[in-house]
Design a protein that fits this description.
The structure is a homotetramer. By secondary structure, chain A is an alpha/beta fold. Chain A is built from eleven helices and 14 strands. In chain A, β13 and β14 form a beta hairpin.
């Protein structure tokens, strides 16, 4: 069976590492080039517990990534880097799965405010397909450019979209608090993310200004037909990987709790989604898997529903989802190569 | 100078231990009896890095606590135990500072639903003074029975009350997400709180059902004159001590961000409160102190204000606050004996 | 291809869980029965991120394990339980891989002192094969009863045995300090292993009395032909999984550092062993893999060599090693089903 | 009562911060100048939970430290910086307590090999007094220059010295393994000490080459009259603060276990030392105190004694010890200002 050749650009970041791991075991994908300035010249086997041909791959300088010889390129790079690389790779005939935010927002006008740059390739925004199969897999088969969803956006949009579509909650007044493990901040030498500063600490950051906000609103609006402006407060917590999102929504007049719980029935049959009581949703049960656990509790007294979802930010929030989306692009079983079993 | 003799009931729990530490250094308090079945017969010096007379105290069986010979008893016991002990101790002429929820709610009708028992001493609810000086110190001087606030309630009420009083936010639709360290669950042999289950995990619990909800609403309503039903989602996170609360409030029409920030001016001069930008509020800066850090950010786009507060659940959320309240009861400087310097 | 049917007894412990994960993905093994009183009646899919038939297995009461219908039984049970079960299962024709210490020591006379019981089946000690392929795979093909090595014993014996065989270090005066993650203590409701007690703490335990001591000495003596009494100090550290062992050995007169480093050449070609500079050996690089990283540094000034090794106590120290040993018993590739890729 | 004015140079490092905390509460010391380039211009109260005059102090640039106007300067700076500053400060009449290794080794010939520089002020090595009161307080009264011991050196020398002096163990073949929290590496922006790299990991470093080795040997030899070359393997473990050292010593022929336990009787009356069974020595019991817990277990079978000691690396291993030493220099109660009570 033909194996699709793949390149990973930004292969030494936490998402790039995870991606390399998945590609090395995927039955129909084959990593052929890994780009990383940090580890340039080293073998992948020296950095990851890989076997076989993948172990022998040598990291190449990032500057050579535009010339990657592969059928698919995964970009695990900052948005500005992806924005520069993707057009070149597409022009050379590669498919591109971009893990940054460079191609996630359909409206180029949102980039200056949320990402701090003017989008240089707005025509690609029109072409890019958003890689969240559970809320829109129809768009994926055959796509040339996949915008892989953000980690928070994945956890939150999956929790919110069915509830808003149900009509049982108001589209306005959605308040989301989420907590992320430190790999979400990427690999970097920074005092702020040093063990001594993060361990035993909790804090909120980028209140109301996180760049996943417009992505969540766009995704929910597409699926549910409506979405008010969302309030989002992300928090940094001392775990390595994982996101837990708690989303408070105002009940529509007359909404019945039992009906609300059924809103997640739209996920029946999804291989990676599992609906649980909201207080049984836990990061440790999804860690190192492509799974999403989610649940909703109704607080009739306060007039709200609280939806809780958990993912591994490096898997369903990055590398696993990228593989799942490519599986969908190629028309394969979406779960192919994603059976790592947690732990 | 006369030192007030004090007893600690429930001295081997995390709050009881912290209290013992504080009492041992307080210039006007002197621990004379420590009750704990767990460590009965052992000396306090064998369990805590104490010096002096406190080190020589031997833990006594809990069953003897009703006969405590002291001027003040601190009850760091479950609500049911406090409910049984407090009347006996009061009858014998002791002042009582109760760290449980037994005497926090003015309305006895709230106990069956939130605490699971019918209140046996409703007359004491009328007498009890709520020990949160920053939102009502006038009630404390001379009090016989102090109901020490809950840890979440402290962090959340202090963040919410001035905002609601300002009139700049709506009284309805307040959504609170808070995270607590594991000492908040108390000392116990439980698989759920074992290192292997808690480390690297995040989860929500008691969604909409936490017993601090009516306490928060009562406290905010007293101070602000109004408070709608609050939605509260607590989370367990892998740190030993500390609470961070993120509170999302809907802006009143026409509310100005600058005005909102000034709502916390009511705390000017408070020795333990410090107002910061919301994204500078962090657990590690208040750990092992009686301090509260808090801040508010306005998200005009989403029409909300997000208030963030941080405390150490064992200090301002328990033992430190109890000492502060007793200082107020006695007419002393509220900060007396509370100058432990974090770390 | 025929799949061997397997049962896991003690399937809800940390090693049992890990084993279930591995069996579910092994190409030639098939879990057909899982025994656990704790989760009796629940499905494996409710507890683990499994797919396929394994997910539908229901945990059975431990009391039914003696009647297990399978070709191989893995016992992830306390030594006393294994000691009672193994003879019954062997009599019914099953192969047994026992993860406890019940069958590890050839000399029954060692059991009362190190394990606290008199061995009830000394004839099985003679039959049992020690399942550490790297130091004795010849004994494994066709074995009916495999004694799976202890976690510390694996890490330490692999580090020591080649050095002692080389003759470059003395057989006397070996001092081992090792650190283990908390899963090494098993799953239990215990205040001692609660998050609040373990987090941010370090301590030594069972100094000189750990039951892996005679196992290490027996294993090293078999491979190296000599082994003095080893001093072993285990430590509990706040990580979930992983062991790091630091072994100090006295250099033989005239031993050359370069020669010492070559002692590990005996491991050339081992799929799971990797020799590194001693200060590059780290738990995180072997976590969730069946790998062993090890290295040796010579301190000529102090006249010692220090060997450092790292394993995942639940994989190479338990479940992975059990699968590897069974692979060897069956004559299969030892790495079969063990390609989980860490993280 | 006259308060001695003190300056802290390197006040934003972890040891410098801890020192500031202690000085701010010391009844006879008064911080008057804090030097830190990182926080230059900020107030101490913005960084630490201080009250009073200390809170208003503004951090000054490190370059101005040589002109410090104070009676005592604490140098919490790298050895090279201390080496340059101390002579200038001494010349201006200040006493100096140096927390680096710049003045710890009596033999200047040891500096190139262990510290990587040739000592520029060997005459000060002769003058410097080693600030470990429990093993040599007689040298301290009136000292102008105190070399504050290293953190590992403190934990290890205190454990070893009485045993070697007892004659019950051999002076040769001492093997030490110790584990340190991450604050021991100092405050820095480094990928190696990032949360993601350190959390859930264990590793050894600087095997046999740690610069505390000659310091330990010098200290033990002074106290015990003999000390062979020590083998020392330090480890990095995921805790914020604390050191646990496990020291394996070979029993002298005929040594009796009971006699060995009595070796620590030399510490009777020491305010900060507590002798316990070796498996009861734990970092959490000494964290945030100036205490040392230590114990020794005899393993007669292996012919060794294992001594275990625990300290807080920032307190007894740095700031607390510096205050204790200055107390001794001034002829005050050594425990003055050191009654912080852990937690």
């Amino acid at each position: 069976m033909h194996e699709l050749s793949t390149a990973v650009v930004g292969a030494s970041g936490y998402a790039g590492l995870e991606l390399t791991r998945y590609l090395a075991r995927h039955p129909r994908l084959r990593p052929v080039a890994l780009y990383s300035d940090r580890w340039s010249g080293e073998t992948a086997g020296a950095r990851l517990p890989l076997g076989g041909a993948a172990a022998a791959l040598r990291y190449l300088p990032l500057g050579e990534a535009a010339q990657a010889e592969a059928e698919v390129a995964f970009l695990a790079t900052p948005a500005e880097v992806s924005l520069a690389l993707a057009p070149q790779l597409l022009a050379r005939g590669l498919r591109v799965v971009d893990l940054s935010g460079a191609f996630r927002l359909a409206d180029p006008g949102l980039y200056p405010g949320w990402y701090g740059f003017t989008h240089a390739a707005p025509e690609l925004l029109a072409e890019a397909r958003y890689g969240l199969p559970e809320l829109g897999r129809a768009a994926l088969p055959g796509a040339r450019l996949v915008a892989n969803p953000g980690c928070y956006a994945t956890a939150i949009a999956l929790a919110l979209a069915p509830l808003l579509r149900s009509g049982l909650v108001l589209a306005e007044g959605v308040a989301v608090a989420a907590m992320s493990g430190v790999t979400g901040a990427g690999r970097k030498a920074s005092e702020d993310y040093s063990f001594c500063e993060v361990d035993e600490d909790l804090r909120a950051y980028r209140l109301g200004r996180h760049q996943h906000v417009p992505e969540i609103e766009q995704t929910v609006a597409r699926f549910a037909g409506r979405c008010g402006p969302i309030s989002f407060t992300p928090h940094l917590v001392p775990i390595r990987r994982g996101i837990l999102a708690s989303c408070t929504l105002r009940l529509a007049p007359g909404a019945e709790p039992a009906a609300l719980a059924r809103a997640y029935d739209v996920y029946a049959g999804e291989p990676f989604l599992r609906v649980l009581p909201a207080d049984k949703v836990a990061v440790k049960d999804v860690a190192r898997t492509n799974r999403v656990h989610l649940g909703v509790a109704v607080d009739a007294r306060a007039g709200v529903a609280v939806a809780v979802s958990a993912i591994d930010n490096l898997v369903k929030g990055a590398a696993g989802q990228a593989v799942q989306a490519l599986n969908a692009v190629m028309g394969w079983d979406e779960a192919l190569g994603l059976d790592l079993l947690g732990g």
